[in-house]
Amino acid sequence: MGRQKMKKRIKILLWVIGIIAVIFLPDANLYYQRYKLKADKLPEVYKSYTTLASIKDDTYEVLRIEGGFYNPLIPLNDSTIMISIGYSDETDDGSRNEINIWYKINLKGQITDSLRYAYNDRKKNHIYNTFKNHIIDSGDSTYNTWILNNDTTNRKLKNFDIDSNSLDFLLFQVEDREIEYEPSAYDVDRGTSLIKRKFVKKDEWVGHTFWDSRSFSFGSGNGSGRIGWYGTSFFDLEMPKKVLHFTLPVEIEYPDEGVRDRFSYNIYKPKNGSYLLLNDIQNTRYYIIRPKVNSK
Fold this sequence. Notes:
Elements: H1 2-24, H2 28-39, E1 50-51, E2 60-66, E3 74-75, E4 81-90, E5 96-105, E6 111-120, E7 128-131, E8 134-137, E9 142-145, H3 146-149, E10 151-156, H4 167-171, E11 195-206, E12 228-238, E13 243-253, E14 259-261, E15 265-268, E16 276-280, E17 285-291
Parallel strand pairs: 1-13
Antiparallel strand pairs: 2-17, 3-4, 4-5, 5-6, 7-8, 8-9, 9-10, 11-12, 12-13, 13-14, 15-16, 16-17
């Protein structure tokens, strides 16, 4: 009788172990990776790194300019470039507020002048383009010479000396000049950029449990979906007077641990200038890293 009870208990125990194994074994790698992350500590030297927009430094400061629509950066002369951005916001009535802004940037990375137009698309149509150092509004048939002399007076387009009288032609015109970038940061690990990756920290395991309902849908699940890690990359940025440090999110592939950056900076370094401009085309955003006004 004792042996039968013992066999019954062993049988129950084996069933329990089997059930536990069925539940947990498919996610063994998930639990292992989560355990490893808890033990993965950030080296002390990188704890002072912060995001690019949050850099605090005695010598340099960072100006972030949000874009919306991508436009090329134009050199106006040896000391000034122009940034033009545009974006729109939907209003409560379904119309859109359209914003167009132009900035002039000097060799210190300071904004020397700006021009801003805002309008509602249901009230009036404007189509702004940069053409031969003039701002053309082909929707309103006007132009101004602000780029040349800071004059914002809008004049009728019929008085503008152009080779073609077709407004449709102007819609597709782009300025025939564009700044020349430094080697880009599309692949910072090749060592050709002013930006250098110093360290990668895994922060979160990507991939849900095998028993998630998505696991039983075609093309998803812990076994068939994308897995890896979300993490943080720690970068050094070489400036004329010192090296700055910043962080960016990164995706880390499994199992080879290759990194996939979420940015694509083009780097502009003006001749005889003291700032850097990072053009994040993918996210339509600019970062100007410039000397502080009172820095020595």
